Amino acid sequence: MKTDLWVTEKQTDDVKISFRVKEFLHEEKTDFQHLAVVDTYAYGPMLFLDNCVMTNIKDEFVYHEMISLVALNTHPNPQNVLVIGGGDGGVLREISKHPKVEKATLVEIDGQVIENSKKYFPEIAEGFKSPKVKVIVDDGIKYIKENKNTFDIIIIDSTDPIGPAAGLFSAEFYKNVYAALKEDGMMVAQTESPFLEPEIITHVNNTLQGIFPLVKLYHAYIPTYPSGMWTFTIGSKKYNPEQVDPAGIPDTNTRYYNPEIHLASLVLPNFVKQLLTSKETMNF
Ligand code: SAM
Predict the structure, then answer these.
(1) Apex CA 219: angle with CA 168 and CA 142, to 5°?
(2) Where in the chain does DSSP place strands (E)?
């Protein structure tokens, strides 16, 4: 009798998601986390870090386009972009396609994520090939303190707020992001699911409200992330992502993002709006 193999992510104590396995491709313990690459029937090769789904070739375009292009197409001149995390290269790919970007720096703490992404996810890691790109293997929490008034856009493409990424959700880190941005700069961070981690959304919103004059939440649909409904939070020194001219948005050959989705993603369901009324924050 044929036995099916499955790989499972425990999303909460009460929720799991499983993918039927075609082949286990790679597994190692890096200096920072457990890394696995598993080829699955439904989503092809999938990257796992500490047993959490990071990315896969079937739905990665949603996340990488949406975390990159809402801010890039709001800022009138996003020449110099910093990515913290993002070791799979997908955000770099979207940034590099943008005609106004001249320089993209990626600061990823774990070089093994970069190496394995290049090997097993060439479609995603193609961002590393762009001449606009500079890759630094370092802790983003340390790097951000060493750069003041430098970047137009800072994208925090981190893992969940555990382990080395926990500090990327702290007030101190966001204050250092503010200082590293130019006087009209913008930051964007992935801020988890309103169904399964609402407290993270509330925390980031409240923390950024105390640092940036403008804070906006937006959402997108990523089937392999917990609950499928995902959010991103923008902190902006000047520009409002709701006030863009759709006609001015360049076509960068996207599969999810478009000018209508840019604006629609900022329209929030009532239960998500509620999360922005609480004053709760968390300690990271
Ligand atoms: N899209 C994925 C998600 O939403 O979970 C995240 C993509 S990317 C793989 C996340 C990256 O953040 C990982 O490669 C991890 O090594 C990196 N990372 C975690 N903490 C970091 C830190 N303090 N500095 C730089 N990179 C960090």
Answers:
(1) 10
(2) 6-12, 15-29, 34-40, 44-49, 52-56, 80-85, 103-108, 133-137, 151-157, 181-190, 214-221, 229-236
Q: Is 110 a catalytic residue?
A: no
Show the domains of the chain with their CATH numbers. Answer: 5-56 (2.30.140.10), 60-275 (3.40.50.150)
Instruction: With beta carbons less than 8 A apart as the criterion, state whether 63 and 222 touch.
Output: yes
The DSSP-derived string for 187-222 is EEEE---TTT-HHHHHHHHHHHHTT-SEEEEEEEE-
Ligand 1 geometric centre to CA of 248 (Å):
31
Predicted local confidence at residue 141, as pLDDT:
96
Which residue, judged by its Cα, is nearest atom 2 of ligand 1? Answer: 54
Hey, what amino acid is at 11?
Q
Of 107, 193, 87, the C-alpha closest to 150 is 107
How do residues 131-147 score in pLDDT, each as one tens digit? 999 999 999 999 999 99
Atom of ligand 1 nearest to the CA of 168: 23
Q: From atom 5 of ligand 1, which residue's Cα is the shortest distance away?
A: 159
Q: What is the pTM of this model?
A: 0.96
Pocket probe mutation, ligand 1, options 34, 62, 108, 156, max atoms within 8 Å of Cβ: 108
The residue whose CA is least distant from atom 11 of ligand 1 is 85
Q: Helix (H, G, I), strand (E, B), or coil: what is residue 265?
A: coil
